[in-house]
């Protein structure tokens, strides 16, 4: 699956990195993730899969339960305890960095990326920035993942209280979020590092001619990263002031390139 990434300056030296919303991404095949603990155990025990595959199945199961619980809180009546918990959760989610949201969007199903950027930017700089955010993500989210896992046993002690254990579920969510961001960082770094441009001549073609003859399938391999300058994107951002893009321009960009407006605005408002 190819993912379209959109990169552009949003305020001063701040750049926005976002993935176009895929309407089919949220539609997971029915029956892939079990809905009950018994179904989860049956799927894990009946199929001989690597430990990593079973771990991902467990994470997907927990994620599905968390999503359903969140939807339940969102639909709760105004003024209720659940509704207040949902409002508090929204405030906590607003503090999540946009780079984490971007890295989480690079799922394991992504096999290549198409990077859309304004032609006023140097494509080598675009690749360098993407590589930097991926490398930084592997370091930061690995550290935060260990910290979140360490806090899980401590916050579980609040289960004895008759109130909803918000600290435990928040730390559980952060553990899942950091794990997904770490996976996305490693995936993006791999795709960016394997970037190739078939139209650009290689200075080592003559020296490696004999090797290419032995391995002709390498010539037919599709690039995992395609840089695509967009004149439309440039026209939208060219009149930006020193204060950065205004909200109306950001909304127009999000409509044209299928981006999440709230995620893009986070880049502009990031301190």
From TrEMBL:
Residues 197-218 have a biased composition (Basic and acidic residues). It comes from the Eukaryota. Pfam families: Mit_KHE1 (PF10173). One of its GO terms (cellular component) is mitochondrial inner membrane. GO terms for biological process: potassium ion transport; proton transmembrane transport. InterPro entries: Mit_KHE1 (IPR018786). The chain crosses the membrane at residues 151-173. Keywords: Membrane, Transmembrane, Transmembrane helix. Residues 193-222 are annotated as: Disordered. This is K+-H+ exchange-like protein. It comes from Arabidopsis lyrata subsp. lyrata (Lyre-leaved rock-cress). The lineage of its organism: Eukaryota, Viridiplantae, Streptophyta, Embryophyta, Tracheophyta.
